[in-house]
């Protein structure tokens, strides 16, 4: 289950228990009093926020104490020029201990009512230090506070955005958006990561978990998400963001900050980028100007009366009924309807055909991923195009005159075919959308 979904559900349950936030409370007045254990000069109380173990609000630095106060937490966070400090309940096993957290940015910002942050501080019982599943956040207004940002350009590298990361646990074999992790000597930031990728002739660089550097020639997966999903400061330069860290216990998805080298050689649109699939795909036809095709959301393998049982032809979904995953053995032995699938060679003028349920069936290895010239994010990003015989621009949807006008996919239509009229065919690209569960806030 995606971390964001779990966190949102828990947050809704907690708020239902706590009640809705109200006007300025006695708690806020007390926390902002002249008590030296309360708020230090230059700090301001932001409020009470939902904080669960899946994705913490603050996570860059922390400590626990049996004598915790808001001032003690701020004193801990101040030397690091952190923008935020927060105090909260530790755990049931050690009820006397409270937690202090620091960060340059808030990773989530789900508000909770003040009644959720009513745990007495162990260092001063007249003050409160968050609660169970809730954290009291304070903001640092000092002039030297660090506020990370995404740099539009780093030398020749352009920031492309925050992208959802493929889940290596769910993919077989394990896969990532970018294929090679690069070791950086010393703390990681955008500059040494992009330099390392450039030295190895990669066009894309990505950073995540605050200190991981990844390189690749193309994005194997991932979709563009809001920059607010990538708020972990780089270990080597806290003024820059380096993706996200997923959940604290290693589960859930991370997001990755992607940069592209604008000085890399031009993209070759008639050359394969990848020949191995990293997960299930959905095949979506689009017109070659990038427009969607009305009433044809995706392609699917359909049985045909002219083929033996177990054979499928690639067609538009019939009556809105589509396969959830359209692997069809295009990139090697796949699974279709729970049975092994394999594809056959594609000849000019014919449709792609696959077979399932025949153990040991050989498959055609001429399919590949190719650059997508109509992708607004970039030609090397998902969704890429399905190519065959090193061409992605020769696909068409053709009404099958022998099957009540069913729209079949045809590679390089030809005159005189018994199943369709070439003049009735519509040229298309076939986009290959990776099927992944992603934890995102929309762009």
Automatic annotation (TrEMBL):
Domain WSC per the UniProt entry, residue ranges: 42-141, 156-262
A GO term from the CC aspect: plasma membrane
Predominant cellular place of this UniProt entry's protein: membrane
Subcellular location: Membrane
Keyword terms of this UniProt record: Glycoprotein, Membrane, Signal, Transmembrane, Transmembrane helix
Signal peptide positions (record): 1-26
Its membrane topology: Single-pass membrane protein
Protein name per its UniProtKB record: WSC domain-containing protein
Organism: Galerina marginata (strain CBS 339.88)
Phylogenetic placement of the source organism: Eukaryota, Fungi, Dikarya, Basidiomycota, Agaricomycotina
């Amino acid at each position: 289950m995606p971390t964001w979904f779990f966190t949102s559900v828990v947050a809704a349950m907690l708020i239902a228990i706590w009640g809705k936030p109200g006007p300025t409370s006695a708690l806020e007045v007390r926390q902002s009093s002249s008590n030296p254990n309360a708020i230090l000069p230059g700090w301001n109380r932001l409020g009470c926020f939902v904080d669960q173990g899946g994705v913490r609000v603050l996570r860059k630095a922390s400590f626990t104490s049996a004598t915790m106060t808001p001032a003690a937490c701020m004193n801990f966070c101040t030397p690091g020029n952190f923008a935020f400090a927060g105090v909260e309940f530790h755990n049931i096993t050690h009820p006397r201990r409270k937690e202090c957290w620091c960060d340059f940015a808030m990773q989530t910002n789900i508000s909770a009512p003040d009644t959720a942050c009513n745990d007495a501080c162990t260092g001063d019982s007249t003050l409160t230090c968050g609660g169970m599943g809730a954290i009291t956040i304070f903001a640092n207004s000092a002039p030297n506070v660090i506020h990370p940002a995404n740099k539009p350009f780093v030398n020749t590298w352009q920031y492309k955005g925050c992208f959802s990361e493929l889940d290596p646990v769910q993919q077989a074999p394990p896969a990532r958006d970018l294929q090679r992790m690069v070791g950086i000597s010393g703390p990681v930031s955008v500059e040494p990561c992009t330099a390392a990728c450039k030295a190895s002739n990669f066009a894309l660089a990505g950073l995540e978990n605050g200190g991981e550097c990844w390189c690749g020639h193309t994005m194997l997966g991932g979709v563009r998400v809001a920059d607010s999903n990538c708020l972990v400061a780089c270990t080597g330069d806290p003024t820059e963001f380096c993706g996200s860290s997923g959940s604290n216990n290693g589960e859930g998805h991370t997001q990755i900050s992607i940069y592209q080298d604008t000085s890399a050689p031009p993209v070759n649109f008639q050359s394969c980028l990848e020949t191995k699939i990293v997960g299930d795909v959905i095949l979506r036809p689009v017109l070659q100007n990038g427009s969607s095709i009305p009433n044809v959301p995706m392609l699917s393998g359909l049985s045909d009366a002219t083929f033996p049982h177990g054979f499928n032809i690639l067609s538009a979904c019939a009556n809105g009924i589509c396969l959830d995953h359209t692997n069809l053995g295009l990139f090697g032995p796949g699974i279709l309807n729970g049975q092994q699938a394999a594809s056959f060679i594609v000849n000019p003028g014919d449709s792609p055909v696959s077979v399932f349920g025949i153990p040991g069936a050989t498959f055609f290895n001429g399919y590949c991923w190719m650059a997508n010239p109509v992708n607004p994010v970039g030609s090397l990003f998902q969704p890429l195009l399905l190519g065959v015989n090193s061409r992605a621009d020769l696909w068409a949807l053709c009404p099958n005159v022998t099957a009540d006008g069913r729209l079949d996919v045809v590679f390089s239509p030809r005159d005189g075919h018994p199943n369709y009229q070439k003049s009735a065919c519509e040229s298309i690209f076939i986009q290959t959308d990776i099927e992944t569960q992603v934890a995102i806030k929309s762009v």
